[in-house]
From TrEMBL:
The active site is at H65 (proton acceptor). Its cofactor is Ca(2+); heme b. Residues 1-23 form the signal peptide. It comes from Sesamum indicum. Keywords: Biological rhythms, Calcium, Disulfide bond, Glycoprotein, Heme, Hydrogen peroxide, Iron, Metal-binding, Oxidoreductase, Peroxidase, Secreted, Signal. GO terms for molecular function: heme binding; lactoperoxidase activity; metal ion binding. Heme b binds at H191. Belongs to the peroxidase family. Classical plant (class III) peroxidase subfamily. SUPFAM superfamilies: Heme-dependent peroxidases (SSF48113). Transmembrane segments: none annotated. The keyword tRNA processing does not apply. Its main location: secreted. This is Peroxidase.
Amino acid sequence: MATFKFIIFLLLQLLLQFHPGKSDLQLNYYSESCPRAEAIIKEQVTKLYQKHGNTAVSWIRNLFHDCIVKSCDASLLLETVNGVESEKTSSRSFGMRNFKYINTIKDALEKECPMTVSCADIVSLSARDGAVLLGGPYIEMKTGRRDSKESHAALVDSSIPNHNDTISSVLSTFQSIGIDTEGTVALLGAHSVGRVHCINIVHRLYPTVDPTLDPDYAGYLKGRCPSPYPDPNAVEYARNDRETPMVLDNMYYKNILSHKGLLLVDQQLVSDPSTYPFVEKMAADNGYFHDHFSRALLTLSENNPLTGDEGEIRKDCRYVNAN
Ligand code: HEM
Ligand SMILES: *[C@@H]1O[C@H](CO)[C@@H](O)[C@H](O)[C@H]1NC(C)=O
């Protein structure tokens, strides 16, 4: 029996050794195949930021929405075709923007190295470079992710937390991909930039104001969102952080401590005893926030990637390659 087990063990080792598919992400994966890949992405992200500052904000949200749904595989970017629904059509993706500029980045890469750099790596590296432009930390990221051949639209609602989910369910979602409580609190600091549409706010304003919301701030938000039933097509929104809306800083934590959180989930970080201590520490120390944000974003960016001969390198990030 023992010998039999040993033989099985040896066979497994052999299989693992010669299995050609699975390999890991690595630093500078494109150093031989497309040496300027990371420089090109950075150039494009910078140019886009100079024209439309909020593109940098979008790249950070993209990483979250792509990676938390099964894998960092650019499935998020696929359009609805042949009856296969795009992940972007889910209500969880409400308000996502600037997707057309992903094509700008991809086109620049295709010009230099056709069919070489994955859309999944563009999602990660654009978020990395966007964070720096917004005054956030620089995060060293590995590359070598490959693109999925399918959309995971059916998994979106169960994978991406909703604006009014409980903290315990949010924590367990992030826990399941290896991000601890402190890391989750830090990631939500991404809500230090960008905007929230009224549709995600009005339930805290009407018919009565949520008591965890500062009354003066509620008054301001009612001005931004005058109707309890906002038209989902109207561009009615409030900025996440009135103080420093385009800076990835710890103002978010100061805001929620003074009851100026926009989403219910933001505000609950303060009322939940498991997250409150981290909120306090992050509000007090921007460097500490940045350290934990970096660590958690890195983990998020390495969630279950396709590598080796899995998936493909898409030519156009919106569509699976034809063949
Ligand atoms: C519990 C987890 C989270 C929930 C429920 C959540 C929910 C939301 C909602 C409802 C919006 C506003 C959408 C709109 O009305 O336009 C939003 C915006 C945003 N979220 Fe999150 N989010 C979460 C975590 C994250 C994480 C982990 C990141 C990135 C690390 C992130 C990045 C962003 C960014 C950058 C925006 C602003 C987008 C823009 O202005 O275009 N979020 N989020
Ligand atoms: C959360 O908000 C959604 C709308 O986005 C709503 O349908 C749902 O009933 C809310 N859930 C809770 C628990 O309030």
